[in-house]
């Protein structure tokens, strides 16, 4: 008996060495996930991806993608891994191993319904969107950005413009402007066509005085939306800031020739000519813009400025004469000249005043100019009128 016992004991180590590795049960991984046993689900499915009999089965990788996606969208699960990327890579491998049959893969949801391969991807993707949207509406912009970036990682194999657009907005509100422009640029590259998303990179670059980027982005938008007013303005102003006057003129003259009913092109050409000191040309451009669009405030206001330039020159000459008695007669003549110039300019400003003014700042600037001209011609009644309006707008004396 003792001998037999010894033999049995000796045989035990050999038996242990000969034991086969336990086959991971991928269905148990899904059961564990549904039961809230998250670590167990992850452990089983990870083991299945290295086990000889299951590592080449597309369904293994499909389950892994679903499990990792579920873990990443479950607020109670914390991990230092990039779960979204692992999920995306796993689902891609599942498709590759399926030999064109990944659409037949499915898991059962908690209600017993079937969730097919594409539906599972949509479900996980929507979870990132919902969580990101909730964070964004709660003004947790960094949290929203994190969720949208997870969605970008998860949909890396089939990029989704929605995630890039939302990530751009979240990044902007989180004051991460570089990310905002990068994500929105990618949105456009992928075929996104929402106007706000397309134009933001150019507007942000211009605001940051990065005129090269502003120009590049504006011109990219204009290829898609040729007559977008803000982008045409950004393009022109960027060219002016970069001192590319010839190119600016060529673009605008070609635009005017191609579309003689485009009031903005005439207006922008007037702005350019004003910048170049070609005041008579600028005046003609603003008049042409108003002929096409009679209620064009900016064109009307800039046309008035044509007259204000001469008034400023006269005022400068008056100030340079000082108070010397010898210059009194000459000074009086210049004052009378300024009165006549002001009387010529006022109707243009008054006409602009009756138009729809685009902003409070523009209205204040207009009223301040009118007030000064009324002062020059001693029109106290109208000066009092515009002063009262300025006070209502919050302008202090």
TrEMBL record:
Pfam families documented for this protein: TPR_8 (PF13181)
Segment forming the signal sequence: 1-18
Protein's UniProt keywords contain Cell membrane: no
Keywords per UniProt: Repeat, Signal, TPR repeat
TPR repeats: 263-296
UniProt protein name: Tetratricopeptide repeat protein
Organism: Ohtaekwangia kribbensis
